Amino acid sequence: MREPSPGAAALADVEPVPGVAKPDPILIVDHVRRTFGGLVAVDVEHLELPRGAITSLIGPNGAGKTTFFNLMTGFDVADEGAGTFDGHELRKIPAHKVSNYGMVRTFQLTKALTRLTVMENMKLGAREQRGERLLLAPWAPLWQEQEQEIEARAEELLVRFKMDHMRDEMAGTLSGGQRKLLEMARALMVEPIMVMLDEPMAGVNPALTQSLLEHVKDLPHMGMSVLFVEHDMDVVMDISDWVVVMAEGRIIAEGPPEVVARNEEVIDAYIGKGHGDESRFTPVPLGAAAVADTAVREEAPPESDEGAGELASGGPDDGSGGAASDAQEGPS
Ligand SMILES: Nc1ncnc2c1ncn2[C@@H]1O[C@H](COP(=O)(O)OP(=O)(O)O)[C@@H](O)[C@H]1O
Ligand SMILES: [Mg+2]
């Protein structure tokens, strides 16, 4: 059994009911509503996310999970309502500012830029998240110093994610799973206090999922809080300190994983059988990616790449693709 997250103990006495208060919430959401035409995508009355813990957000496709992520991270604006993150008001705050508060997210479709190297992706991550100013001010006296700091941090993260040997490779040559790892490493460039991961396992070869999971489990021990969207209930049970269930935009249940898993009504009605199959291994955009243009493919690498890429990189001379070695080794 894994070492519990630092924030897990505080959850022991929290009642498993939707909207329940947490002892030390990092994110508080109030009356957030987002509609698309007549469709209510998100309608969350109240939700608190614990600090220093891993919370999984589960629910069927179309439940509103990604929209909720977008709202919380400033990539979308709610019709009404808002929240606070670590004491900061979130209402109408743009994404770069939210990330300055210390909240970063990854995307359901990986955003790694295929024509940049792994290292360039990492560095760009730092700049993107900090806004344009750094890019526009290369003459600033601090420029070089910042550049060196960024490079050092990128190197440290690549080592931790066992991708340092790939630093000069084009991201486009990585397998889908390795791109997910890269995206996660890139998100950590800004030393966030909260990381929101939208289906980081989707489309990832099983050989790499364990490695990804181990990295996620480490985040609370490195001072971060995690919100994690995942379909696979085994993964959810393994990784979560707390589970929030969303359906049709609403929070319909929350609690410790074993409590939520016992809630058969929730599982039957909303998670259901076969749910994992459809979403774990055949993410929606894949069919489209096969016929799409290059730009689209960069964001949504075709699934068919996946196995081949993973195998190719998992050879004996390659430390990264070797899931076994990844999984056993803790991060330094
Ligand atoms: N930009 C958009 N325009 C119109 N409808 C959208 C948009 N984004 C999401 N939706 C709809 O909102 C609902 C919630 O979607 P989403 O948040 O992606 O769910 P999940 O991530 O849980 O699968 C779905 O019915 C989806 O079709
Ligand atoms: Mg989604």
Keywords:
4-stranded antiparallel β-sheet, binds adenosine-5'-diphosphate, Rossmann fold, 332 residues, binds magnesium ion, disordered C terminus, alpha/beta, 10 strands, 6-stranded mixed β-sheet
Description of the molecule:
Helix 3 packs across helix 5 (143-160). The chain has a single domain, classed as Rossmann fold. The chain is globular and about 50 Å long. Residues 273-332 have low confidence and may be disordered. It has 15 helices and 10 strands. Strand 1 and strand 2 form a beta hairpin. It has helices spanning 65-72, 95-100, 118-130, 133-136, 143-160, 176-187, 206-218, 233-239, 257-262, 264-271, 275-281, 286-291, 294-299, 303-313, 323-328; strands spanning 25-36, 39-50, 54-58, 80-85, 88-89, 103-105, 194-198, 225-229, 242-247, 250-255. The strands form 2 sheets. The protein has a 6-stranded mixed sheet with strand order 6-7-8-3-9-10, with helices on both faces. It has a 4-stranded antiparallel sheet with strand order 2-1-4-5, with helices on one face. The chain has 332 residues and is of the alpha/beta class. Bound molecules: adenosine-5'-diphosphate and magnesium ion. Residues 36, 39, 41, 59, 61-67 line the site of adenosine-5'-diphosphate.
